[in-house]
Design brief:
The chain has 156 residues and is of the alpha+beta class. The protein folds into two domains: 2-57; 71-153, GMP Synthetase, Chain A, domain 3. The chain has four helices and three strands. The protein has a three-stranded mixed beta sheet with strand order 1-2-3, covered by helices on one side. Helix 4 (127-142) links the parallel strand 2 and strand 3. The two termini are 58 Å apart.
Length: 156
Amino acid sequence: MIDFFSNWIMGIAGASILGALTLAACPKGPVYKVLQLGIALLLSLAVLRPLANVENFNIPSIVDEYAEQEVKKIGQDLLESIIAERAEAYIVSEASAKGLAVKASIVCRQGEYYPEPYQAFVWCARPVSAKNVLASTIEQGLGIPHSRQKYLETGG
């Protein structure tokens, strides 16, 4: 499909360059006007060439390809959302078990096969104590190193 479009664009560009060079070499006069008409027809043919190959232009396959890409993207986004949600619940659960009330947010990035937790934001009333208690747990449980864990104070 990309070859089809690239060939089409190359044909238009080639016809344009040929036409420009021809007109530049031709003196003004009646021949110039005839050449302009001929070049306009040549450019029209170059632009309309795909209509001559309508059987090669398979719209259902283009739509299927686009739909498949969109479904994959939606699936990846959904999977990333589920992984982030479960990782956040894990942090809240671990903090609760250790006597801390926290709110967590996870940023994922695409791993080799699926989205993986990449960065953790943890909000609580005492961020320093939360970091001391949770940093190792988050690193061991989710694989997020201390350097990508941010502990922030809640406003209340």
